[in-house]
């Protein structure tokens, strides 16, 4: 039996273009607390989360919960680094 992810799958159709787009909306948990450019999360929280996800075989399950942290990290980085990270993420999804 396939394990269900904690989210919903939506499909949008265009009657004019005869196309359909399917996407998944995942739940995000506030596991890191108040995170912004000036307020970084407690490293212990991140370590515990990584260790627990790894031991349960659920790597990447909480990726939506760290989206804000990723966004803040990339905000002031050079475009070449942003492009490299996007490329690596794309390659990872292909595997």
From TrEMBL:
One of its GO terms (cellular component) is cytosol. One of its GO terms (molecular function) is double-stranded RNA binding. GO terms for biological process: defense response to virus; negative regulation of viral genome replication. Residues 40-94 form the 2'-5'-oligoadenylate synthetase domain. It comes from the Eukaryota. The keyword RNA-binding applies. Belongs to the 2-5A synthase family. It holds the Pfam family OAS1_C. Keywords: RNA-binding. Gene3D superfamilies: 2'-5'-oligoadenylate synthetase 1, domain 2 (1.10.1410.20). The keyword Secreted does not apply. This is 2'-5'-oligoadenylate synthetase 1 domain-containing protein. InterPro entries: 2-5-oligoAdlate_synth_1_dom2/C, NT_sf.
């Amino acid at each position: 039996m396939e394990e269900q992810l904690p989210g919903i799958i939506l499909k949008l159709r265009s009657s004019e273009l005869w196309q359909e787009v399917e996407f998944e909306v995942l739940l995000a948990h506030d596991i890191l607390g108040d995170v912004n450019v000036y307020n970084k999360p407690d490293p212990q929280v991140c370590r515990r989360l990584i260790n627990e996800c790894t031991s349960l075989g659920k790597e990447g399950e909480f990726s939506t919960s760290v989206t804000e942290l990723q966004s803040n990290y990339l905000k002031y980085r050079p475009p070449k680094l942003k492009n490299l990270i996007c490329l690596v993420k794309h390659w990872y999804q292909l595997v």
